[in-house]
Amino acid sequence: MNDTSTLKSGHIQGETGIWEMVIGLEIHAQISSKSKLFSGASASFGSEANRNVSLVDAAMPGMLPVINEFCVEQAVKTGLALNAKINNVSVFDRKNYFYADLPQGYQISQFTKPIVGEGEIIVDLDDGEQTTIGIERLHLEQDAGKSLHDQHPTKSFIDLNRTGVALMEIVSKPDIRSPQEAGAYVKKIRSILRYIGACDGNMEEGSLRADCNVSVRKSGDEFGTRCEIKNLNSIRFIIQAIQSEAERQVNILEEGGTIDQETRLFDTSTGETRSMRSKEDAHDYRYFPDPDLLPLEFTESWVQDIKEKLPELPDSLKKRLVKDYGITSYDASILVEEKDYVDFYQQAANGRDGKLTANWMITELFGALKKDNLSFSESPITSENLGKLIFLISNGTISGKIAKEVFAEMMKSKKSPSEIVKEKGLEQVSDDSEILKLIDQVISDNQDKVNEYLSGKDKLFGFFVGQVMKLSQGKANPGVVNKLLKEKLK
Amino acid sequence: MPNKDTIVDVPTVNKIARLSRLDISEVNKQSLTNDLNNILRFVAQLDEVDTSNIEPLASVTGHKLPLRSDDVNDGNIEDLVLKNAPESSSGFFVVPKVIE
Fold this sequence. Notes:
Chain A contains 15 helices and 17 strands. Chain A is of the alpha+beta class. Chain A folds into three domains: 295 residues, no CATH class; 112 residues, no CATH class; 57 residues, Arc Repressor Mutant, subunit A, CATH 1.10.10. A two-stranded antiparallel ribbon of chain B has the order 2-3. Strand 3 of chain A pairs parallel with strand 1 of chain B.
């Protein structure tokens, strides 16, 4: 391998030159509905086995699916948020395959006429750059049930609670060029879904999962043969799986081999992908329009009503934060990642120094939560208390250094900063006469250093400031100390 | 008139049977293939109509797809759901092991 330190992310240095990755994602987002897409059984997670199953979900003969209006509305809302074309007429198709957790023998999906067509989103990358990723389509479909293979040596256990829960499949164009871009794309989609409330975005519970299509090519060449990595349920795994799959393909191609188009699984223990099924007709789904369902139609005015009710989305919110609070575009992009962050920030920064609030929230609060392994919603520090802390810093009651001490105590005790400052006597001393007393003591204790300073050793000034601060236990206002010391040591 | 061309052959019937998990005996395969060809030839008469500028017709009744509101009003019938299952255990369907 050559030196990879200067290689762009998404590029692989091979023996024959630099390879580029081409990536497209299919995101499956579970719609946050109470009931299923075509039945009135509960869509909730974690119930007793087969508790949330109707005779429709169990595919009993003669049962008819009836579509959930809320789910249709969420798909349209998501389409609008993805700047995509809304198809006022769409069709449901049967995707036929056999598996024990799919009692119908087919999944109701949308194949030729999805509810949402082409769109695009702006994705924020770590280096502050942005890129636009195209959306190919969004369609509605049913989720499958769950199979447990570890309960019995020769049997599988089937729970149909998830069978028929509403999913949106969001398909990107093959516009993604690196694992990092793929991660940022998923983050952005998740953030948008949470803002509009269409999906809770919980990847651990499987509400959001992604299939990644990966191929490699030499820059400027046609797309190579792709492999699909199924069912990745964390952004970290998405990034790892794409990198390792692309490297696998480069190795094969450079040894003169060819890539078989196939479905692969990511093994989280080895960090590598492996072939999932090699059956030649695994992808012959024999789609046809579902005769149980008429085309889904709605009016343009219904779409317009949904559009008017859309909440402010991350991109526009980001611009507004930069303008209203004077924070950097980078800080704003971190704050708008989650709706909860923005709400917290706007409450804390209300009437306070916006930049200072953003710094304390992003550096100190996020850092402390990560260190204590707490989620954002578990923060011991409320937006109100962080705002109060910023106020105490801005009006000079405490120094930045003391503020860190107060902050650490707030994380521990959940008390308000003013309470902690009062209890511990941490108010900053800005009073001239008190600081002069400290200065006098430092001068009399260090007469030799004073003489050195007066004879030209200017560098010692910092030493005196440090001594005064130390004597005040960090409470002296450094600005006042500086000013008075200068006058005193003339 | 229906043409006499063979539309499906025995290997195609084998493939469809495999995808549909149907176990068809060797003896029946040829007669099944003939039957399928007869049906397909009959239906193929429809190809004589020019439909190039006609939207697909989903319904002759003029009905629209009915929508329901998002209410939980079904489920909690696991006994009924599992009633016909050849085997079940602690609320699960139990089937021969299916592993990738």
